[in-house]
C-alpha cells in the first residue's frame, strides 16, 4: 500500500492524493502504513485540516516546499480528534504557514503546541478578538512589536455582543466560561495580562474608559498576534505588519464577528 493511500477514504473530501503530496513535499514519506489503522472519523478530521491548508495556500501549493516533520506530527495528533471547524481552520492555517523551503524552519510546531492547549471556547474567542482588532484598527500606524504601542490598542466589547458571537447555549454557564476563556488566553500570553470583564464602574476604575455597558476590555499580545497571523497562512511577516492594509484575514463562515467594539483610547493621528 502506498503511504498516502493509507490515510483512507477521508481524502475524497477534498480531492486527489496528489494535492497532499504537493502540500507536504518530501515529508509525505512519513505517512506510513500505520495510518491504515486510523478510523474513518479520524481520517475525515485530518482531511478537513489538509483541505484548509490547501485552500489557504491556493496557487502557492504548486511551488517548491515541504512541511517540516515535527509540524506534520502535531497536525496528525491534533487533527485526528479535531471536530470543531474553527480549530480545524487554525490547524490548517498553521500547516499552510509552515510550508517552506528552509529545512530547519519548524516554528509551526511551537504554534501548534499552543493551539493544542486551548479549549474550543478559547480558540473562538482568540479569533473573535483579533478579527475585531484588525477590522477596527487596520491601516493605523504603531509598532505592535513593542508592548508600549500594543497598550494603545485596547478594545472594549459588550457582554451582550460577546455572548452572541460566542453562541453560548443551554447548559453553558457564562459566569464559569468567561473566566475560563480570559484566564486561559492570558496564561498562554495570547492577550495581555491587563484585562477585565466587569461593570462600567469597574472598567472605568481599571482603564479610565467610559464603557457604555458591562463588558470586556482586553489588549493584544505578541504571541496572540503571531498565532492569528499563522492561523491565516501568514508566517513571512512580523507582527509589526499585523495592521498592514495588504494583509488579508479571512472571515470564517458561520461565526458572527464582534460588532459592538470600541477603542479604549482615541485613535492616534
Helix/strand layout:
Layout: H1 17-24, H2 40-57, H3 69-79, H4 85-97, H5 107-116, H6 120-137, H7 147-150, E1 155-158, H8 159-166, H9 174-187, E2 196-198, H10 200-207, E3 215-218, H11 222-231, E4 261-263
Antiparallel strand pairs: 1-3, 1-4, 2-3
Helix pairs in contact: 2-3, 2-4, 3-4, 3-5, 4-5, 4-11, 6-9
Summarize the structure in words:
The chain is mainly alpha-helical and 269 residues long. The protein has two domains: 4-116, no CATH class; 120-263, no CATH class. It has eleven helices and four strands, in the order αααααααβααβαβαβ. It has helices spanning 17-24, 40-57, 69-79, 85-97, 107-116, 120-137, 147-150, 159-166, 174-187, 200-207, 222-231, and strands at 155-158, 196-198, 215-218, 261-263. Strands 2-3-1-4 form a four-stranded antiparallel beta sheet, sandwiched between helices. α4 (85-97) packs antiparallel against α5 (107-116). Mean pLDDT is 88; it is low at 1-15.
